[in-house]
Amino acid sequence: MTRTMYDGVTPSSIPTSATMVAGYVDGHYANLTALRKRFPEATLVQIAVSWKTRGHVLDVEKGDATPAEAVKWCTHTMADKANGELTVYCNTSAWPQVKAAFTSAGVTQPQYWIAHWDGSPEIPAGAVAKQYRNTPGYDVSAVAAHWPGVDSTSPPKPPAYEPFPGAAWFTVGRKSPIVAAMHTRLVAEGCNHYQSTANKDVIGSGDIASYEAWQRKCGYTGAAAKWPPGKSSWDKLHVPNV
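Above: the chain's sequence. Below: its structure in token form.
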């Protein structure tokens, strides 16, 4: 028996009847908080796009992790888990390359979630799930009755600090609890250039001035000290995971 799983960057687009959903731990489209709120009773599969981020699944595709980084994710970032409890997502054309990376490194193969939008929910041999249909709001996958690492264990412990969401995420007007947490940390670090505490969860001029002060405090100068935030200064700020 297979199960149906939905994934998408906008949780509100996923059908409310979903009992299994997948979302992003990190990157531009990190959305686990919103997914948990919309689907509190569903099985939640956590996808990492960076090999340095913990999760149930590592996304291997252009702009995210590479086949070689998938090996490092299994052997370093998720080294406390058996490879049989870890999953790599990739499309069918990249699958041989990913498997070859593990073979050449002498590392046990992980589970695989394969993308092939042919409309057929049949899971290929050697895979535990198949993403078979794409819609404007979400993707649909067929999942095996038992998914090692997802069904048999607790979800990975979330990181203590909020992962860097990418420079493009920091647009004026964006509203997020991450912004409020950043605000609090900047004030705590003595980089308070805010005019008020109103709308502290919305990016505004106070965030820009305060963060640029933080980057100068970190030793950055010139263009490197300007908005938007960079990964190095963000990691040093230790914004609590929200």
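Residues 205-217 form the longest helix (13 residues).
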